[in-house]
Amino acid sequence: MAVLTRVRLVLPAMPGHAWPAAERVRGRLGSILGGMDREIRVSDAEREDVVGRLRRAVSEGRLSVTEFDERAAAAYQAKTRGELEPLTLDLPRNLW
Fold this sequence. Notes:
This protein has a domain at 40-95. Helix content is 47%, strand content 0%. The protein has helices at residues 22-33, 44-59, 65-77, 81-84. It starts with 21 loop residues before the first helix and ends in a 12-residue tail after the last helix.
């Protein structure tokens, strides 16, 4: 039985042409394929990483304080990676 463990998105190089959606596609692919780990229990460190990312989002004006409070509470209550993932799905990856 074969198991898919890694997928790499390769876009052709075109001089003077940027691929603005490439990171979004890579991120979504990672989220979809990473779904195999959604039931893995999270550690306190993983919860703190997510809350740190949420704090950075508030400092940049991407989240309101109310949204932060709600998401941070959900992060601290999360038991699996699948519960943590949606809390930062709409935030840029560079906040990590």
